[in-house]
UniProtKB/TrEMBL annotation:
Keyword DNA damage applies: no
An MF annotation (GO) of this entry: polygalacturonase activity
This protein's UniProt keywords: Cell wall, Glycosidase, Hydrolase, Secreted
InterPro entries with a match to the protein in the record: GH28_Enzymes, Glyco_hydro_28, PbH1, Pectin_lyas_fold, Pectin_lyase_fold/virulence
Matches recorded under Pfam families: Glyco_hydro_28
Locations listed in the record: Secreted, Cell wall
Protein family according to the UniProt entry: Belongs to the glycosyl hydrolase 28 family.
GO biological process: carbohydrate metabolic process
Location (main, coarse): secreted
Protein's name in the database: Pectate lyase superfamily protein domain-containing protein
Residues annotated as transmembrane: none
UniProt signal peptide: none
Organism: Prunus persica (Peach)
Superkingdom, taxonomy of origin: Eukaryota
């Protein structure tokens, strides 16, 4: 399926007082810029953008994830965790209560499904597995707390597309909430909270005493028809939401928070998955807000499970060390047909970043990125290499990625410190890289684009693009986008 064409009609976004105030601020800043090349700025800069704190719920927008997941099913059996001995006092372990509840509800999977309600309270638990045709529903005021006992996060096999734990050799800790081989699963509620209490895990990482790769807050594997919505996720030990080898996944109306120095607390990482829609989410973390992945070096190449047909829209957030949206760096199974639109990032290291390296192999193709607003983002657009992290000695330095068909348009970055940096890889193909209406303000007069081993075409960009982006062979293709 071809990637959805991103809309350039930014004016269709409903203005709010916050967005109007932001517009006024931008216009005020522009009015004080006196350098002569300002006449070349694209005219779309004056469009109305959604601002931080504005109402971005999907029912206010014509574009939704409805095509990826149908209506939430009404389950035949609805029960409370209290019926299985659960105690919401924040101190009593509910690990066995959750496991008993899920085991009981499995029996209804073929006869209307089941829903487990978590009432108001603080429900301490270790890891538990979900089942098919199932809804986990957190009522208002409900908080699921991750256990501080590492034994309550058992060790499981590494992902075959990674070959080992991402951080340590061998297996990895299971996620707090986990599922494998499931279908028709809903995780939702009245803005209840799942708190991984990750500080213990971060300290193990900081102190270099971590024995196995940290667990995610939520990981679903080999599953389909998944909805995750209307919850707050806090303090994940590692990547927060990780659908891997999945299809038809919707993640919407989520708030995901971790301390800004918490290591590797990515917000949402679709990995070797297809038909994934992420929209209307607010994320603060110590790593990428959203990162699209597909396996690591020779293990990812061998498994060849790409990520494709991914939509990321109306995501707002900040990450001081990483990117608003990253593609890679683990992308060895291939990534294609990705649409990123209406992104708002502030006080961050990077806005949009494509991350590859020697040994990765794979491909990144047909990526559309549009309508991006950045404030105080150091490097708004980056293609980076050289992470030099590999699972073992089996990686092939001749396996280089192929990157083709990247279209980036309608980007406005205010108070940046670096012009776009596009660092390809010698001997690899980075071509048909297209830019249209890209404005980066706040740079020193000497700041300039930096491009290596890339080719494409740029139109309506400020400051002026590098010579590698005046490739007339790419002009027609870029013009047709």
């Amino acid at each position: 399926m071809d990637a959805e064409k991103p809309s350039i009609l930014v004016s269709s976004i409903k203005p709010t007082w916050a967005s109007l105030l932001l517009l006024f601020t931008i216009m005020l800043v522009l009015s004080y810029q006196t350098f002569s090349t300002m006449a070349g700025l694209p005219t779309w800069v004056g469009s109305i953008w959604p601002a931080a704190g504005s109402d971005t719920r999907s029912d206010h927008h014509p574009s939704t994830c409805s095509g990826f997941f149908g209506g939430v099913p009404k389950r035949k059996v609805v029960m409370s965790i209290e019926a299985f001995g659960g105690v919401g006092d924040g101190a009593t372990s509910n690990t066995e209560a959750f496991r008993r509840a899920i085991l009981h509800m499995q029996r209804f999977g073929e006869s209307g499904g089941a829903q487990l309600n978590v009432p108001k309270g603080r429900w301490l638990t270790g890891s538990f597995n979900l089942t098919s045709n199932f809804t986990l529903f957190l009522e208002e005021g409900a908080v699921i707390l991750g256990s501080q006992d590492p034994k309550q996060w058992p060790i499981i096999e590494p992902l075959p597309s990674y070959g080992r734990g991402r951080e340590r050799l061998g297996g990895r800790h299971i996620s707090l909430i986990h599922g494998d081989g499931l279908t028709n699963v809903v995780i939702t509620g009245n803005n209840g909270t799942i708190d991984g209490q990750g500080k213990m895990w971060w300290e193990l990482w900081w102190n270099r005493t971590l024995e196995h790769t940290r667990g995610h807050l939520l990981e679903l594997m080999n599953s389909q028809n998944i909805l995750i919505s209307n919850l707050t996720f806090l303090n994940s030990p590692f990547w927060t939401i990780h659908p891997v080898y999945c299809s038809n996944v919707v993640i919407k109306d989520m708030t995901i928070l971790a301390p800004l120095n918490a290591p590797n607390t990515d917000g949402i990482d679709p990995d070797s998955s297809t038909n994934v829609c992420i929209e209307d989410c607010y994320i603060e973390s110590g790593d990428d807000l959203v990162a699209v992945k597909s396996g690591w070096d020779h293990y990812g190449i061998k498994m060849a499970r790409p990520s494709s047909n991914i939509i990321v829209r109306r995501v707002h957030g900040t990450t001081p060390t990483c990117s608003g949206v990253g593609i890679g760096s683990e992308m060895s199974g291939g990534i294609s047909n990705v649409t990123i639109e209406d992104l708002h990032v502030w006080d961050s290291a990077a806005g949009v970043r494509i991350k590859t390296d020697k040994g990765r192999g794979g491909y990144i193709a047909n990526i559309s990125i549009s309508n991006i607003l950045m404030e105080r983002v150091k490097a708004p657009i980056m293609f980076s290499r050289g992470a030099n992290d590999h699972p073992d000695k089996g990686w092939d330095p001749k396996a280089v990625p192929q990157v083709k068909g990247i279209f980036i348009s309608n980007v406005f970055s205010l108070n940046s410190t670096k012009a776009p940096e596009l660092r390809g890889i010698e001997g690899a193909s980075f071509e048909r890289i297209c830019f249209k209406n890209v404005t980066v303000l706040g740079l020193a007069p000497s700041a300039a684009w930096h491009c290596e081993f890339v080719s494409g075409f740029a139109n309506g960009v400020f400051p002026a693009a590098c010579p590698q982006l005046q490739d007339m062979d790419a002009f027609d293709w870029c013009l047709q986008r």
